[in-house]
Amino acid sequence: MLIKMESESYKEQGNVAFKENKWDEALKYYTLAINNIKGEPKELGIYYKNRAAVYLKLEKYQEAVDDCNKSLHIAPDDPKALFRRCQALDSLERFEEAYRDATHIFKDDPSNKAVQPYLQRLHQIVEERSRVNAQTNTKLESMLKIVFDPSNGKDKRETAINNLLVLSKEHAGSEIMLKQSPTVQKIKSLLKIEKNHEIYITAVRIIGELCKHSEDSTKIVIKDVGVPWFLEILDSSNQDIVNAVQFCIQAILNSLSGMKNKSDSKPNQQLVDKNKSLIDTLLSCLAMSINNQVISGLARDAVIELLTRNIHYTTLDWAERLVELDGVKKLMDCASELEEYHYESAMNITPSTRTIAAVCLARVYENMYYDEAREKFLAKMQDFIKNKLLTPDIESKVRITVAITALLRGPLDVGNTIIGKEGILEMIIVMANTEDELQQKVACECLIAAASKADKARSIVSQGTDILKKLYKAKNDHIRIRALVGLCKLGSYGGSDASVKPFAEGSTLKLAEACRRFLLHPGKDTDIRKWAAEGLSYLTLDAEVKEKLIEDKAAIKSLVELAKSGDQSVIFGVVTTFVNLCNAYEKQEIIPEMIELAKFAKQHIPEEHELDDPDFVTKRLLALGNENVTTALVALSKTESANSRELISRVFNALASEHEIRGIMVQQGAVKVLIKLALDGTEKGKHQAAQALARIGITINPEVAFAGQRSLEVARPLLSLLHQDCSGLENFEALMALCNIAQINESSRQRIIKEGGFLKIEHYLYEDHVMLSRAAIQCMCNLAQSEDVVKTYYEGDNDRIIYIVACCLDEDKDTAMAAGGLLAILTSYSKKCCQKVFDSKNWLEALQCLLANSIVSLQYRGVCIISNIVAAGRELAEKVMETNILEILFALKCTVDEDNLKKIKEVVDEILQTCEKYGIVKKQN
Fold first, then answer.
1. What are phi and psi of 839, to 5 degrees?
2. Cβ partners under 8 Å of residue 422, min gap 6
3. For residues 575 and 633, is the Cβ–Cβ distance under 8 A?
4. Distance CA 201, CA 239 (A)
5. Structure pTM?
6. Where do the H-state alpha helices sit in 608-682?
7. What is the pLDDT of residue 52?
8. What is the DSSP letter of 267?
9. Comparing C-alpha atoms, which of 613, 525, 533, 610 is closest to residue 579?
10. Whole-angstrom Cα distance, residue 813 to residue 901?
11. What is the C-alpha separation between 236 and 302, in angstroms, rounded?
12. Residue 849 CB: number of other CB atoms within 10 A?
């Protein structure tokens, strides 16, 4: 009894909150009422249908349907629960089900006025859909006959299956394909025998589209074909087929979890819990396939990429489960493979496999956020190394070394822990000293990866420099280039500090010249060129090397072409080289007082080279822009590595700092990539990408730069720069770009408002910095073209209009002009805004200042504001005209004769005519 009373109390509090439009509070109380009660009493049905009403207000329609279902399970004919389910189903475009509920209510209560409009509208929709479905069904049968009959011509079959793809993208079409036709089974049968790649790929894409529509659609597909089937067709050596199947599997995971194909998309936890078994099955199958020896290298890469994308705690939170299933050991198997070393148990891999595996290991380790989990992860790594060491053959040593290299490029802490174990580094140095080329090569790579920090570099300088010099004299170019990169890395541990020279004067330039020769290798061996790029990535911290390289067009073109290959293993070398050339790396702020203190304490003080002055950096940026470096960055942006995406964002932002390059960037597809980079990655990476978008949005027509849907997508990244942690320049650039976006159309303005943009922009109206406050007012001018902004933010009980009036008196003429424009827009839309002008003590002074100004555009804004106020009604017109404003208007009418001032005279005439109608002034002869 006491429990029921407590639940009833929660319900009453929920009712009060609901009446006050406090949806979140109402949701909380109804949920407490539901969770507090035991069994399924009648009251529980009431709580569920009440919570469904809240979900309707919050536009969470599926949750509303679920709660109505639970309520109707207790009280099957409850009209309120039926009506709310009808509304939710209607919003979900499940019209037939909504019509069923509306009909049920009407049969029980024909006098129910609330349901009658729904019943009438839904009847028309259902009738029309029935007619269209009949036509669609006929077309579907016709297309299926053409596609599945091999005797039809190639072109005819391709056209038919492309039409099926279009149909699968439509909700109504997909329903027919899934529920009224055995389309999925037919496609499954077709793929067993189909030889035409175009038809094969389109058929797979159809399955993917069918899975995108809903959780139910996905379950129908999986029931028809089974999870193993997807892994079976994924096993292909055709990149397009692998991409299509990968998209298909991701679409399934998205449907089952509520995620979208957006970088910032989060899963619906209720949906994830509901489909946990199916999600686990699919991810487990992927995990088991990681080290499957018979699948293709492309399929293996796709499997690892799918896991990398979905295991993070911000997505499906499956990393710990992957560790339990020995997934990290399987990843280590892949990371320890070598393409050129074929043995009996070798797997098929691509040049990108080891890099992709390293990124996945890093992603898994990132999820090990408590000590016990990290210990388990490290134990798995150590077991892998230990098992290999127990077999004292060459293959095991090679694989251990390659695996450690992958760890040093992925979860660095784990790699450093393992290489620090007794005997590991010594083993690697012994391998480097052998005459076996394979051992030399992998040992060299490991030494390079190990020298990741200055302290490690110093340690290896003392032990490994002589070995690397010896290996550089080898006959095999693959050994020589790796030894050269090792020397480059050791020679660059001083970073951009011009005073630190690990090797003799001039050695760095000689090393760079050697890397250049390998980069332009006549044999075009990708492996050699990749390592040459990595060597340059270390050496280009030296300003002299930067200047030499940027003048070498052939070398820059070679780096761009290398990047456009899309090979994930080239990312570090190519992008880091570009970062260094642009000086886009993070620089430590130098405080003069700290320099003096360092001098006093006789501490080392970093020095910047004169060739890193802004003029030289600008020259390098222009050279890179003109060599189409944007195409390289776009090609490499598909990486799952957050750190690599940050580096790419840094280069983009540096390029966007130059006006001349921004147009080239837009032409070469930078905007689409930057929006993705600004929404997903490290905080610094997102920040850099957002600033690049802002810079593009300032100088290029936003309708060209952000065509179509991108004008909406760019709002959130730009608004992220309106934060106290961002610099004044970043705030200013974001405001200017948002100003341009807001002038495109109403949809763009609504998106800015929806993302909380109004209040963020308004914050800068009150900044002391002239340029920031001016930019914010200019942005508001464009936002105020939306009537929603005027009604929601300016007509209410606040002092916003008073502040705008005060800004019209600002000493900065551009600020006054922007404020005058904003006031003119607001008063043109709203009588309330006209009335609120008089709440300001300075209204008369502000209008006088605008009208009597020597700047024509300010005068024009002044007369427009007065015209709007006068047009709003006689009472307001009298308030204005009882002052000396009337005299000023007459003076303007008499003095304004020039052609460029005709507009002002026309508005003054309109004002005076309106005042004559009101009887405030006499008609002029």
1. -70, -20
2. none
3. yes
4. 10
5. 0.69
6. 614-626, 629-636, 642-656, 659-667, 670-679
7. 93
8. -
9. 533
10. 19
11. 11
12. 17
Q: Which of 641, 695, 686 is nearest to 665 (CA)?
A: 695
- Whether residue 430 contacts residue 445, with contact meaning beta carbons closer than 8 Å, is answered with no
Name which of 319, 210, 320 is nearest 254 in CA terms: 210
Please report the pLDDT score of residue 347 as a whole number: 86
Nearest-angstrom CA–CA distance, 118 and 121: 5
Instruction: Tell me the per-residue pLDDT of 301-329, one tens digit each, with 9 for 90 and over.
Output: 999 999 999 998 888 999 999 999 999 99
All domains in the chain, ordered by first residue: 2-114 (1.25.40.10)
* Tokens standing for residue 668: 């070469």
Distance CA 714, CA 737 (A): 10
**Cα 848 to Cα 843: distance, rounded to the nearest angstrom:** 9
The tokens describing 594, both together, are: 């700290």
Neighbours of 754 (CB within 10 A): 12
- Alpha carbon distance 317, 311 (integer Å): 5
- Amino acid at site 465: T
Count of residues in the chain: 925
Contact status, residue 736 vs residue 698, Cβ threshold 8 Å? yes
State the Cα torsion 407-411-413-415 to the nearest 10°: -10
C-alpha torsion sign, points 639, 644, 649, 654: negative
Question: What one-letter code names the amino acid at 814?
Answer: D
- How far apart are alpha carbons 603 and 764 in whole angstroms? 42
455 in helix, strand or coil? helix
CA atoms within 13 A of residue 540's CA, in its CB half-sphere:
29
Q: Does residue 335 have a pLDDT over 70?
A: yes
CA distance 918 to 875: 9
Residue with tokens 């910095």: 769
Q: What is the dihedral of CA 324, 328, 330, 331, to 10 degrees?
A: 150
Q: Which residues contact 330 (CB under 8 A, 6 or more apart)?
A: 287, 290, 291
Count each helix (H run) and each strand (E run) in the chain, helices first. Answer: 55, 0
Tokens at residue 510, please? 């000689």
Q: What angle do CA 748, 864, 835 make, to 5 degrees?
A: 85
Give the residue from 287, 263, 283 showing the smallest Cα distance to 275.
Answer: 283
Residue spans of beta strands (DSSP E) within 332-403: none
**What percent of the chain is predicted at pLDDT more than 90?**
24
Q: Which residues of 112-146 are buried (b: 16+ CB within 10 A; e: fewer)?
A: eeebeebbeebeeebeebeeebeebeeebeebbeb
Q: Give long-range contacts, CB 8 A cutoff, 24+ apart: 184-191.
A: 184/210, 184/220, 184/221, 184/224, 184/225, 185/224, 185/225, 186/144, 186/148, 188/224, 188/225, 188/229, 189/148, 190/147, 190/148, 191/233
Distance of CA 666 to the CA centre of its chain: 17
Token reading at 68? 């109505």
pLDDT band at residue 689 using 50, 70 and 90 as cut-offs:
very high
- Give the tens place of pLDDT for each residue, 367-395: 998 889 999 999 988 888 888 887 767 88
Distance CA 87, CA 53 (A): 10
C-beta separation of 545 from 512 below 8 A: yes
> Distances in Å between the alpha carbon of 412 and those of 79, 308, 365, 539, 571?
61, 17, 10, 22, 17
Find the Cα–Cα–Cα–Cα dihedral 477, 482, 484, 489, rounded to 10°.
170
Residue (of 821, 822, 869) closest to 844 by Cα position:
869
Range from 208-212, 490-494, 818-822 carrying the lowest mean pLDDT: 490-494
**Rounded distance between C-alpha atoms, residue 78 and residue 696, angstroms:** 56
What 8-state DSSP symbol labels residue 343?
-
Which amino acid is located at 172 in the chain? A
Separation between Cα atoms, residue 65 and residue 93, nearest integer Å:
12
Q: What is the DSSP letter of 587?
A: -
Cβ atoms < 10 Å from Cβ of 781: 21
